[in-house]
């Protein structure tokens, strides 16, 4: 059986879920559902990133323990993911016991391999990002994300010999053995690696109590990014000891946003190489959602609440809008008026109106439509083409293109109705009327399959209105993709799918 394993980043637990953070996970969920639909074995991992100074500070401000804060906020992420219909297989928390134990094991292993050494670090540290910056990376002496001056930190710590991985990484990336997409992101990583020396990485902090202790020096805790990256292995049940990798490793794709590219494209494969683990088959970094032209984020105060939008548009429509308003690899400014326009165009006037039109025409006089003896070649070809283009688009992470192919089929059906005028045919040529309605019902059935990864709820509704819900659910995709074999024997008019806003 083919398989598809996918990870998304684990979300900072001290932030509230916002539309930007929901973006990676919605995209991953669409892929997970698509691959499940294809009959593949899917494992989809997400979760929360729970250690670090910021979490401890936030807990203190709220007079609760860091644990209490993590429990509460992690539950909030789960709740939002449920609202957004995220079908993850495991939700890992970096405070999970198995994760903490595994991280400790790996640190000991890296030390044994002499890839960790003691030293002192002085650098410019942004508390907002929980990372050090080089002077070159600052903009007007400020952190490019938080627009705040970093503080100078000096402390004893342990280093990971990241520098020795410069050459192997360059080679792996150039040979496409370490696949980074889209192309611009690959070039960015190559540019960074070739622009100067790759420095060793400080991987522990003094005085940060809310973290996983360095096993041989408990006064230090491991740098949050090392802790966080390792979730990808503990999350699929690896204990850090055996050399037998869990079935879900390596993932087919690790989806991330472009802000965390370097961690995933450089530090992460370096750790995996030291562990002797296979590298993920692909790393894909998507663009930013901006709001008012700035990256949407808690610290910038411009976040959009996904739950509010799910109330306005419905979770299904929100998923559709979010991945189809601009290409996945690019940045996109979120504007409510654009969402309203697109909702009305694609969904209310587009899909919703077509479903209503066809079901009204079909149920006016009868509710049974059987396949004609000869199926309509033009429809059959059109549907096959749509499926082909759609599959290619999803396999290339081009969600907006996949949605475009669906919309194209909707337009095709609308034109067909205008051209055939089935209300006239009903009076003049019953046989023709029967065939035309059959083609349209069959198209709705295909549309329900096509939209399923994007809008699972609305897909089910369409199956229900067509009276074929339980039969379609049992079918493999290859069967569902066939044209003209389904009997529609209990079509109902159903409800309005997307009320106009
Ligand atoms: O980075 N637009 O967590 P996070 C698009 N804990 N994507 C966005 C976004 C925006 N405005 N804001 C956030 C972390 N994201 C770490 C990850 S993984 C080992 C540790 C995306 O909660 C971001 O790019 O800040 C990332 O993919 C995800 O949301 C989590 O971000």
What features would you describe in this structure?
The chain is of the alpha/beta class and 501 residues long. The protein has a domain of 146 residues: Isoleucyl-tRNA Synthetase, Domain 1. The protein has 19 helices and 16 strands. It has a six-stranded parallel sheet with strand order 3-2-1-12-13-7, with helices on both faces. A hairpin with a 2-residue loop joins strand 14 and strand 15. Helix 13 packs antiparallel against helix 14. It starts with a strand and ends in a 21-residue tail after the last helix. It binds ligand ME8. Ligand ME8 binds next to strand 1, helix 1, helix 7 and strand 12.
Count of strand segments = 16
Radius of gyration, taken over Cα atoms and rounded to an integer in Å: 26 Å
CATH superfamily of the domain at 335-480: Isoleucyl-tRNA Synthetase, Domain 1
* Structural class computed from helices and strand pairing: alpha/beta
Mean pLDDT metric: 94
Based on the coordinates given, report the CATH architecture of the domain at 335-480.
Orthogonal Bundle
**Rough shape?**
elongated
Describe the biggest sheet? Answer: 6 strands, parallel
Classified by CATH, the class of the domain at 335-480 is Mainly Alpha
Q: Count of helical segments?
A: 19
Outline the low-pLDDT stretches.
none
Strand percentage lies at 15-25%
Bound molecules: ligand ME8
Helix content: 40-55%
- End-to-end distance, in Å? 44 Å
CATH fold topology of the domain at 335-480: Isoleucyl-tRNA Synthetase, Domain 1
**Physical arrangement of strands within the biggest beta sheet:** 3-2-1-12-13-7
């Amino acid at each position: 059986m083919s398989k598809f394993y996918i990870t998304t980043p684990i979300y900072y637990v001290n932030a509230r879920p916002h539309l930007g953070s929901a973006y990676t996970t919605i995209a991953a969920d669409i892929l997970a559902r698509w691959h499940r639909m294809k009959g593949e074995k899917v494992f989809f991992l997400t979760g929360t990133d729970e250690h670090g100074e910021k979490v401890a500070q936030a807990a203190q401000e709220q007079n609760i323990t860091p644990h209490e804060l993590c429990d509460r906020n992690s539950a909030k992420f789960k709740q939002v993911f449920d609202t957004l219909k995220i079908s993850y297989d495991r939700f890992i928390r970096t405070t999970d016991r198995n994760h903490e134990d595994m991280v400790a094991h790996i640190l000991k292993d890296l030390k044994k391999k002499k890839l960790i050494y003691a030293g002192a670090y002085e650098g410019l540290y942004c508390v907002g990002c929980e990372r050090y910056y080089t002077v070159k990376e600052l903009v007007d002496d400020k952190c490019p994300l938080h627009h705040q001056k970093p503080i100078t930190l000096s402390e004893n710590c342990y280093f990971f010999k990241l520098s020795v991985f410069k050459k192997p990484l360059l080679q792996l990336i150039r040979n496409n053995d370490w696949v980074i997409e889209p192309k611009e992101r690959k070039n960015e990583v190559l540019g960074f690696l070739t622009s100067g020396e790759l420095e060793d990485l400080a991987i522990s902090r003094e005085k940060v109590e809310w973290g996983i202790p360095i096993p041989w020096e408990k006064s230090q805790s491991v740098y949050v990014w090392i802790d966080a990256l390792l979730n990808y292995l503990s999350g699929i049940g690896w204990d850090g000891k055996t050399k037998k990798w869990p079935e879900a490793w390596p993932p087919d794709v690790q989806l991330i946003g472009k802000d965390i590219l370097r961690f995933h494209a450089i530090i992460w494969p370096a750790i995996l190489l030291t562990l002797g683990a296979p590298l993920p088959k692909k790393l894909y970094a998507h663009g930013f959602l901006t709001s008012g032209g700035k990256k949407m984020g808690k610290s910038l105060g411009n976040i959009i609440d996904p739950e509010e939008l799910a109330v306005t548009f419905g979770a299904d429509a929100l998923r559709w809008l979010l991945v189809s308003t601009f290409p996945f690899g690019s940045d996109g400014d979120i504007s409510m008026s654009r969402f309203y326009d697109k909702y009305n165009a694609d969904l209310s006037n587009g899909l919703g109106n077509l479903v209503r039109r066809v079901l009204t025409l079909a149920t006016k006089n009868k509710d049974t439509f059987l396949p004609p003896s000869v199926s309509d070649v033009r429809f059959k070809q059109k549907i096959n083409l749509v499926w082909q283009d759609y599959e290619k688009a999803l396999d290339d992470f081009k969600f907006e293109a996949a949605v475009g192919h669906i919309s194209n089929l909707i337009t095709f059906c609308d034109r067909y109705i205008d051209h055939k005028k089935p209300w006239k045919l009903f009076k003049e040529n019953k046989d023709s009327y029967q065939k035309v309605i059959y083609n349209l019902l069959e198209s709705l059935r295909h549309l329900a399959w096509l939209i399923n990864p994007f809008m699972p709820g609305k897909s089910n509704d369409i199956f229900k209105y067509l009276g074929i819900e339980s039969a379609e659910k049992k079918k493999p995709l290859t069967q569902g993709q066939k044209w003209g074999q389904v009997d529609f024997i209990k079509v109902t008019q159903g409800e309005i799918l997307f009320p106009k806003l």
